[in-house]
Amino acid sequence: MLAAIRTTLTSAGIAAGPQRLAADSGYWSIANVSAIPNTPELLIPPARHGRHGKPRKDGKPSESKSDSLRAAMLARLDSEQGKAHYAQRSRTIEPVFGQVKTVQGGGRFMRRGLRACQAEWKLLCGTHNLLKLWRTTMTATS
Predict the structure, then answer these.
(1) Of the candidates 10, 12, 38, which has an alpha carbon nearest to the alpha carbon of residue 21?
(2) Contact 64, 53 (CB under 8 A)
(3) What pLDDT does 63 receive?
(4) Global pTM?
(5) 114 exposed, middle or buried (CB, 10 Å; 0-12, 13-18, 19+)?
(6) In this structure, which long-range contacts are made by residues 22-29, counting pairs with CB atoms below 8 Å and at least 24 apart in sequence?
(7) Out of 8-12, 38-42, 63-67, 93-97, which region has the weakest mean confidence (pLDDT)?
(8) Longest CA span, the chain
(9) Higher-confidence residue: 38 or 72?
């Protein structure tokens, strides 16, 4: 997803990439947190479910490869600055999904198949963006 963001910005003539990236816990993985080069500051809360290390024969959990990454991310999110930056996500990103789902009726896809659903989602997002542009031009002219 980060590569798609960079490609979109580059094609729009914007050289600077994002400085910070906030995502939900579904994007938490060792690969997403550590293996991506030139990554902006990531704010991804680790998933609260699942195993945290392979259980040993004596029943005690063993250390996982991601334990240090989880601890570092939780420390970053628990800091005052991390809390403030992650809280912006609820005001900037989440309302868009709510509007697309409730106002535009995008709670369920009308067509079957991955490509059809991707096309429908792009259409819903495009109409959402066009409505935003139209509303801002209407308020600016009146």
Answers:
(1) 38
(2) yes
(3) 67
(4) 0.61
(5) exposed
(6) 22/85, 22/86, 22/88, 22/89, 22/93, 27/1, 28/73
(7) 63-67
(8) 72
(9) 72
Give the type of residue at 41: E
DSSP H helical ranges for the chain: 2-11, 30-34, 67-78, 80-92, 94-102, 114-141
Residue 58 in tokens:
């004596």
Quote the tokens at residue 86: 């992650």
Cβ atoms of 43 and 22 closer than 8 Å? yes
Q: Which residues are CB-neighbours of 46 under 8 A, at least 6 positions away?
A: 25, 28, 66, 69, 70, 73, 74
Q: Please give the residue that has the higher pLDDT: either 86 or 3.
A: 86
Q: Do the Cβ atoms of 53 and 30 come closer than 8 Å?
A: no
Q: What's the pLDDT at 78?
A: 92
Cα 60 to chain center, whole Å? 34
Asked if 41 contacts 86 with a C-beta cutoff of 8 angstroms, the reply is no
